[in-house]
């Protein structure tokens, strides 16, 4: 039968148990705090991103509003001018001054024009750059171009008239074989059919190759006043709201044509005829969003999670425009990941610093116990001269040391009584000595 006092190899010193427990508790605390901080930081970032998405949407709405509303008010005022119903070019040229001032005050306006039920057309276009002047073969000093189309039966008279900044006539150019007819244009037919202003779907302007739209309204019974409005500023607005390096943000119409994109160079495809890019052609992630709209606010594309925001804008066309924003979750939560790893490193560093402290503290606490073990071994060998253990700051260890000292004194007294019984032959002194030793116990 094995002895219960035999030492087991699987047993470890108390200071090892204390150190292991101390390390485990420290690791557990670090892990719990790290997970808690990561989850809280993630929630804060996601909540902040939702507010950011709302602010981006609001900025785009305000930009659309500030782009369209002034032009809508301008058309309402200009449509009341009597000269809009003038039958000849010379009479319509009285519109040059108010039109040029309106174009000067609204840099997003590409042109102002009038279409007539008889097929006549009158346009004032600002020549703001050298490319436009080269396109229309305008003089270098030209600031405005008037394009006039007059129909007299089967005869069509078309010409460009150029003016300088002070509206002084510079030159005229005849355009033979003119085929342009405003009555075949969507802006003219739509405005003639509606009592209020209309806005066309965005398209690519032929002259400037900018993305824009046409706002139009009736002027009297026979004319339609239109304004070509460029939307280049919308792309600049979206570019300001690229949250992370891989953020995708786009403004598009009901047909999926991209109207505004941070990289505006990708908006127009110029092969045989210039036309708008499809959203799906700009980015596979945007294509995935349009092809399979998620029910929530997350989209998985090729194993990568994206945070999605999508909203509808009333302005921008007959069916309005839509704004889509995709932000990769790993980039959006990069601060949360960074805090998580910083917390893990801080916990590890704290553990490495505290391990020696815990080891030293446990050895200091265990030292009185080791002395008690040595004292107990001495008592087992009937050696009562072994020095008493010093007091311990641990209450239970100190109480054990005191009890051990009392037990040693008691055993010593019993051994002295035994010695007295063996050495003393006289009964009276023996009784006195036994009584004295017993009282000491």
TrEMBL record:
Cellular component annotations (GO), alphabetically ordered: membrane
Segments passing through the bilayer: 12-36, 341-360
Statement: the UniProt record of this protein carries the keyword Transmembrane: yes
Source species, domain of life: Bacteria
Domain (HAMP) ranges: 363-416
Gene Ontology biological-process annotations: signal transduction
UniProt keyword list: Membrane, Transmembrane, Transmembrane helix
Protein name: HAMP domain-containing protein
Natural source organism: Pseudomonas prosekii
């Amino acid at each position: 039968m094995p002895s219960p006092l035999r030492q087991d190899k699987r047993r470890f010193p108390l200071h090892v148990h204390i150190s292991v427990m101390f390390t485990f508790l420290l690791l557990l605390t670090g892990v719990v705090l790290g997970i808690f901080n990561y989850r809280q930081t993630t929630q804060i970032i996601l909540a902040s991103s939702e507010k950011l998405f709302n602010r981006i949407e609001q900025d785009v709405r305000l930009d659309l509003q500030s782009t369209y509303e002034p032009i809508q008010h301008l058309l309402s005022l200009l449509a009341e001018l009597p000269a809009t119903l003038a039958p000849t070019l010379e009479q319509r040229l009285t519109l040059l001054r108010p039109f040029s001032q309106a174009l000067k005050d609204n840099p997003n306006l590409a042109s102002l024009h009038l279409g007539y039920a008889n097929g006549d057309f009158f346009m004032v276009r600002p020549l703001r750059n050298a490319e436009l002047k080269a396109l229309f073969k305008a003089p270098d000093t030209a600031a405005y171009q008037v394009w006039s189309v007059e129909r007299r039966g089967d005869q069509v008279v078309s010409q460009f008239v150029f003016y300088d900044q002070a509206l002084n006539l510079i030159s005229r150019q005849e355009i033979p074989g003119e085929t342009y007819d405003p009555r075949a244009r969507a802006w003219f037919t739509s405005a003639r059919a509606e009592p209020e202003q209309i806005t066309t779907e965005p398209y690519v302007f032929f002259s400037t190759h900018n993305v824009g739209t046409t706002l139009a309204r009736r002027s009297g019974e026979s004319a339609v006043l239109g304004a070509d409005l460029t939307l280049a500023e919308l792309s600049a607005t979206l570019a300001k709201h690229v949250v992370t390096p891989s953020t995708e943000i786009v403004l598009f119409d009901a047909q999926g044509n991209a109207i505004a994109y941070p990289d505006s160079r990708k908006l127009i495809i110029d092969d045989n005829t210039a036309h708008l890019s499809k959203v799906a052609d700009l980015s596979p992630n945007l294509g995935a969003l349009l092809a399979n709209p998620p029910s929530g606010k997350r989209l998985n594309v090729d194993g990568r999670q994206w945070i999605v925001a999508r909203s509808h804008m009333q302005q921008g066309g007959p069916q309005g425009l839509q704004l889509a924003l995709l932000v990769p979750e790993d980039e959006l939560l990069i601060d949360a990941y960074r805090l998580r790893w910083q917390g893990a490193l801080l916990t590890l560093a704290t553990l490495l610093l505290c391990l020696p402290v815990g080891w030293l503290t446990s050895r200091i606490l265990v030292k009185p116990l080791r002395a008690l073990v040595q004292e107990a071994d001495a008592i087992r060998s009937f050696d009562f001269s072994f020095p008493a253990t010093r007091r311990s700051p641990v209450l239970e260890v100190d109480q054990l040391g005191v009890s051990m000292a009392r037990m040693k004194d008691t055993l010593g007294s019993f051994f002295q009584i035994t010695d007295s019984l063996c050495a003393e032959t006289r009964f009276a002194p023996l009784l006195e000595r036994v009584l004295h030793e017993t009282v000491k116990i």
